[in-house]
Each structure stands twice: as C-alpha cells, then as structure tokens.
Amino acid sequence: MDIRETLFALSRAAGPAGFENAAAQMAGELLAPFADEVKTDRLGNVLAWVRSRKTGDKPVVLLDAHLDEVGVMVTGGGGREADRPFSGFYTFRTLGGIDPRVLPACEVLLLTDPVTPAVVACLPPHVLKREDFDKAQKTEDLFLDTGGVPVPVGTPGVFAREPVSLGPLASGKAFDDRSCFVTILRALELIDRETMGADLVVCGSVQEEVGGRGALAAGYGIIPDYAVAVDMTHGSSPDASPQDTFKPGGGVCINLGPDCDRALTRTLIELAKAKDIPHQIEVTCGLSRTNATEFQEARGGVRTAVLSVPLRYMHTPVETLSTEDIESCAKLIEKWVMSL
User: Fold this and answer.
1) Residue 167 lies in a domain
2) I want to staple 232 with a disulfide (CB 3.0 to 4.6 A). Which of 65, 176, 192, 318 is the partner?
3) pTM for the complete prediction?
C-alpha cells in the first residue's frame, strides 16, 4: 500500500461529522481486501472483522480511527440588514471545532447534488478600520458566498482543499483522522492472520468531532477485550509550546493518562523500545479528547490505549504531518497484535 496515495484519496472524500457517507464508503472498500466481513452499523460506523486463523478462544481487539472531519452547515440566507438582502449569501455554523480566525477567505464545498462551491466572505484590508485589523470575527458574523447559487438550509460542507506533498511532509484537509485510518490499514497489511492470537474489529467511527457518539455505540455493541484509539496529537511548530507538542517524524506518540490502561500502555512502550520503533511519550492528565473515553467506559469497561500521530495546524484546511509516523504507529500496532 502506498501510504501517501491512500491518505490523499481519503482526504478528498467529503465526510463532515454526521454526514460521513462518502468517506465511509471509501473506507469500507479499502478494508474489504483484509476483512472477513465489513458492515455499517445504524449510526454509520464502518466495522470490519479480521479473524485469526488460529482455533480456540482469542481476545477481541478493537482498532479505531474516526472518519468524520470538521466542516460547516448552512443555517440561513440574507444579509446583515433586513432591508438589504443579498442573494447567494448564507449564514453558517461549524460542525466540530474550527477556529474562526482561519475561516475568512476559505474555499468550501457544500454537499448539494451536484456539489456547490462557495467561499467565506471577507473584507479586504482597504475597507477595514484600523482598529479592526487584529480582531477575529465570530463565526456567526461570517457568510458563505455561493455566487447566487441557491442552497437549502441544513446543507453541510467541507473545506475545498487538494492534499499536497511538502517534501517529507504532507498537507491537506481531514488528515484528522483519515491518516490514522490509513495507519490501521497499513497495520493490517503487516499483520500475519495465520499466526495472530486475536480477532480484530476495525472501526471507522463517525461523529467523533461532535462528541464521540459513533465510538459509544461501537464499544457498547462489540464488547472488545482491548481497544486502541488511533488519533492525532499536536505537532511542533515555531509558535507552539514544546511541552504540548510532538515532532512530526519523531515517531508514534504513546499516551499516558487516565484514559489509558496502565498495563497495556506499559506493554506498548516496552514493545516500541524492544523493536526499535520510533516513539514519543505523551502525557495527558485529564481526558485525551479521543474515542478512548467512550471505549474505556463501554459496558463493564474496556482496557484501552491511545496511539497518536503528530499533526500541525489541526482543524484547518492545511493539516500537516509526516507519513513516517503513520508507518511507526502501524508497526507498533502490528507488533502488539502479534504478541497477544
């Protein structure tokens, strides 16, 4: 599997939280060659069973990466003043957390049939007041400009962005968390099903960006013995705290914190050291803000771990990462699964 090519293909698929259909369909097709069974549950989670060829009782391992991305939803039309309506301008809100500072002048694809391109309206500097130069506008004060094309209220949309290579790095939209779904695909490619001592369930979960609802349903329904939430963490950049960020290209991040089973996490760290897999230790003193919380609390509780890939510029159209970290994370998952 070409990691970058697969990541770019998944990045292009539209899948804002609650409207993941296109991304989910592609995810199911990518899982099919590895799986004994692929299905979609009532919430839209893509679930794939990868069963060991060994006989006898085996633990069930849930590997999760969420498929939804941050996006927007049209809430109404018109201008700022009732007596000055503007045809083709629409109010909107965000699906998931988007910093309003990155929105002005963004290109958006509204998911009508066919798709409607739009731009987020912004004032040029020539007409701004001096005191407004450094002020961030609120999302509720922004408008989508469709050029006069009508769109229904309730239409979702995503950033319009083609992924690109930046030397050893890659940049694009929806890398959170499609890159981690690619990580799981790569791990499946490495795992030997003839000798692995566990049955795997891969979950491409939905609605993580709006509260982990897909993971809640999947964890409760599958009842795994172990769960690994594979998600993003913050990549280092010049203006970010080195204590809160991790180096792209520095290896998989293994999370230590209340969301994570201590024995399972210790095993993952020891395996990474023993197998010379590049890794970094991430400490989270509260919730990891991943699907781990939902899996950990499912039914009577699940032994859960969090593995992360460092990502710069999270929840923007230019999320940036190193595909080397995808490979190191996939190798760690493979070594752990094969050790069971």
Assistant:
1) no
2) 176
3) 0.94
Coil, helix or strand at residue 64 = strand
Sequence letter at residue 115: V
> What amino acid occupies position 86?
F
Q: Are residues 188 and 260 in the same domain?
A: yes
58 and 75, same domain (yes or no):
no
The reply to whether 168 falls in a domain is: no
Apex CA 4: angle with CA 12 and CA 15, to 5°?
25
**Residue among 210, 213, 203, 257 nearest 233 (CA):** 257
List Cβ neighbours of 5 (8 Å cut-off, separation of 6 or more): none
The alpha carbon of 127 is separated from its chain's Cα centroid by a whole number of angstroms, namely 38
Q: Do 54 and 91 fall into the same domain?
A: no
Strands 71-77, 156-159: pairing kind: antiparallel
On whether both 83 and 114 belong to a single domain, the answer is: yes
Instruction: Tell me, yes or no, whether 19 lies in a domain.
Output: yes
pLDDT in tens, 94-135: 999 999 999 999 999 999 999 999 999 987 777 667 666 677
Last residue of a domain, one of 108, 128, 159: 159
Edge-to-edge strand ranges of the sheet holding 279-283:
37-40, 46-50, 199-205, 60-66, 226-234, 303-311, 252-256, 279-283
Distance CA 336, CA 301 (A): 20
Task: Kindly state the tokens that stand for 188.
Answer: 């499946």
